[in-house]
């Protein structure tokens, strides 16, 4: 628990917000999440760029909450990749190109492809 607290404290101040300090080395959290290509939208091969942009656009508190969830749930395997993607810092409530891109997908929110918006 102390390691995670120190990890998250350091993460909030990082200029490159997607870097996560692991126990043995640095792991690029977005890259790791995008490697779970079965569960995470790939954005025509631009998953890393798209999710990096989304994380850069949110507040430091939201980013820290996403990174905490990632560290707690997604560093070991792709089993929880979609749950990590569905956090509000990386999923979308607005523009979309596919259903699974929308926040609250599991609750029935889908992409209106004609409008390119989640609803």
Short description:
The chain is mainly alpha-helical and 119 residues long.
What's the helix and strand layout?
Blueprint: H1 2-12, E1 19-21, E2 26-28, H2 29-34, H3 47-57, H4 60-73, H5 81-85, E3 111-112, E4 117-118
Antiparallel strand pairs: 1-2, 3-4
Helix pairs in contact: 1-4
Task: Describe the protein's architecture and organization.
39% of the residues lie in helices and 8% in strands. The protein has 119 residues and is mainly α. A two-stranded antiparallel sheet has the order 1-2. The radius of gyration is 14 Å and the shape is globular. Mean pLDDT is 78; it is low at 1-27.
* Helicity, as a percent range: 25-40%
The tally of strands reads 4
* Series of H and E elements: HEEHHHHEE
Q: What is the overall shape?
A: globular
Which band does the percent of strand residues land in?
5-15%
Total helical elements: 5
Mean pLDDT across all residues, rounded?
A: 78
Give the radius of gyration: 14 Å
Major sheet size, sense and barrel closure? 2 strands, antiparallel
Quaternary structure state of the chains depicted: single chain
Structural class, judged by helices and strands? mainly alpha
Distance between the termini: 38 Å
User: In terms of per-residue confidence, which ranges show pLDDT below 50 for 5 or more consecutive residues?
Assistant: 1-27
Strand arrangement in the largest pleated sheet: 1-2
Descriptive tags:
119 residues; single chain; 4 strands; mainly alpha
């Amino acid at each position: 628990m102390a390691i995670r607290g120190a990890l998250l404290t350091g993460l909030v101040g990082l200029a490159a917000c997607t870097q996560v300090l692991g126990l043995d080395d640095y792991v690029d959290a977005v890259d790791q999440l995008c490697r779970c290509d079965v569960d995470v939208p790939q954005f025509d091969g631009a998953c890393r760029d798209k999710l990096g942009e989304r994380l850069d656009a949110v507040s430091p508190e939201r980013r820290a909450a996403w990174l905490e969830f990632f560290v707690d749930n997604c560093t070991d395997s792709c089993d929880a990749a979609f749950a990590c993607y569905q956090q509000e810092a990386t999923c979308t409530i607005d523009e979309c190109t596919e259903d699974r891109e929308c926040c609250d997908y599991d609750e029935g929110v889908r992409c209106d492809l004609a409008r390119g918006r989640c609803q």
